[in-house]
Design brief:
This protein has a 7-stranded mixed β-sheet with strand order 4-10-9-8-7-5-6, with helices on both faces. By secondary structure, it is of the alpha/beta class. The protein contains 16 helices and 15 strands. Helix 10 links the parallel strand 8 and strand 9 (259-262). The longest helix is centred in the C-terminal third of the chain and has 24 residues, at 319-342. The chain has 2 domains: 42-65 and 318-430, Alpha-Beta Complex (Aspartate Aminotransferase, domain 1); 73-316, Aspartate Aminotransferase, domain 2. The termini are far apart. Bound molecules: pyridoxal-5'-phosphate (PLP). Residues 63, 121-123, 126, 148-150, 202, 206-207, 235, 237-238, 263, 274 line the site of pyridoxal-5'-phosphate.
């Protein structure tokens, strides 16, 4: 597969890369990398990640980006074609890849969501939605406790985590948070007239630690918004594009928000891209003035090629169905194995499709679990808004088929993660 280097890179040692991070990137990030074993990832394909010293990891992490696996050949081919012809556009002339990607995305969204604004990150898609809402007079923003929507100032205002917000206050005014999963609390916060309100929430809260709302919640939220005139933004940046075993969490309850947000897996695991997909009404201000909300790299052809190809791959390879099927298997096996080996440490194992969370009683054990998995060459995610929850977001592709294009597996013993404690997890296993 082009773009994936099979050769280990002996000069990129954990030490030298961490030194580079500490000198020029984030010192804290460099230290964290060392704590996670100082592994240096240099290539990826499908469900595998290869490190500079030739070790092979199973990727159930990546914060939900890799539903199609990394470097899916069809996405890479589309991006390569685009790079050779028109990677970026003048932005004065018309350009076909953006029109094609927007049509492809609208075609897999709930009916009535036809208008697309592409961005380079999920947080920018959130900003876009908040601006669309304001353009229609919906200035009062209601989000949910624990919800995660990104870290630019507007997105951070609705991300329900004071830890990330406090150093950067003041944030957006008129923002409130209600308990997630409680449509009555939401209705009370909106009040009888929601014509000045916008609601933003996730179908399943990802960074809050895979919080699954009661059945019917999304439908109730949509009904409350419709009844009061509030605008409904559904943030599917993590849950969408098949992650939950359907194209969208919205599909699972036959809901159509006013604005749907996509990102992460929209990249096809190759080029960063996100989007706000809106109704005609919500999009109207962007129609009136095409310069009202722009960005140099928005709808960059190279990202459009990745998005269109990712959508084709998810549809043609049946990855939504596969996410549902694999999710059921993984959830069952995780529950069984954790109950058998360390049930007393685990509060709950829960998930929808391939978004699965293991909640421990305390954050320390969650950290140890993550390090132990790393020792066994499995990459998972911690949860930004819930340190007791370790998340599994594996690709929905076959591990064996795609592994053939990944560099050879190391025959040496797995590296032991520096700083990994052999605490309660190990004790439990040997009991
Ligand atoms: C639901 C949700 N919304 C928004 C974001 C922000 O996306 P990004 O990190 O691409 O800015 C994330 C990222 O994890 C997310 O999970």
């Amino acid at each position: 597969m082009s773009g994936v280097s099979a050769a280990p890179q002996p000069h990129a040692t954990g030490q030298s890369v961490a030194a580079g991070y500490k000198a020029h990137l984030s010192r804290g990030r460099g230290k964290l990398g060392e704590m996670f074993g100082g592994h240096v990832e240099v290539s990826s394909a499908g469900s595998r990640v290869r490190t500079a010293d030739g070790q092979d990891f199973l990727n159930a992490g990546g914060y939900g980006v890799f539903l199609t696996g990394a470097c899916h050949p069809r996405v890479v081919a589309a991006v390569e074609r685009q790079i050779r012809t028109l990677p970026l556009a003048t932005r004065l002339l018309l350009e076909p890849s953006a029109a094609r990607a927007a049509a492809a995305l609208a075609a897999v969204c709930p009916a009535g969501l036809e208008r697309v604004h592409f961005t380079g990150s999920g947080a920018e898609a959130v900003e876009t939605a908040l601006k669309m809402a304001r353009s229609l007079g919906h200035r009062r923003v209601i989000a949910t406790h624990g919800g995660y929507h990104g870290k630019t100032l507007g997105a951070l205002s609705v991300t329900g985590k004071p830890l990330y917000q406090d150093p950067f206050r003041p944030l957006l005014p008129l923002v409130s948070h209600v308990p997630y999963g409680d449509s009555a609390a939401l209705a009370a916060e909106i009040g009888p007239d929601g014509s000045d309100a916008v609601v933003i929430l996730e179908p399943v809260q990802g960074e809050a630690g895979v919080v699954i709302p009661p059945d019917g919640y999304l439908k109730e939220v949509a009904d409350v918004c419709r009844a009061t005139g509030a605008l409904f933004v559904l943030d599917e940046i993590q849950t969408g594009m098949g992650r939950l075993g359907a194209w969208w969490g919205a599909d699972r309850e036959a809901v159509r928000p006013d604005i749907l947000l996509a990102g992460k897996s929209l990249s096809g695991g190759v080029i960063p891209v996100a989007a706000a997909i809106a109704t005609e009404k919500a999009f109207a201000v962007f129609d009136r003035d095409p310069f009202i909300h722009t960005s140099t790299f928005s709808a960059a052809p190279v990202a459009m090629a990745a998005a269109e190809a990712a959508i084709d791959v998810i549809r043609d390879e049946g990855l939504t169905e596969r996410a549902a099927e694999l999710g059921r298997v993984l959830l069952g096996r995780l529950r069984g194995s954790l109950t058998e080996h360390c049930g007393h440490l685990v509060r709950e194992v829960r998930g929808v499709g391939l978004l699965i969370g293991v909640e421990f009683h305390d954050a320390g054990t969650a950290g140890e679990f993550l390090l132990e998995l790393l020792d066994r060459h499995v990459i998972v995610n911690h949860s930004l808004n819930a340190h007791t929850v370790v998340r599994f977001t594996p690709p929905a592709v076959s591990a064996t088929r795609r592994r053939t294009s990944c560099p050879r597996r190391s025959t040496g013993p797995p590296a032991r993660s520096a700083g990994a404690s052999r605490g309660p997890m190990t004790r439990t296993r040997s009991n």
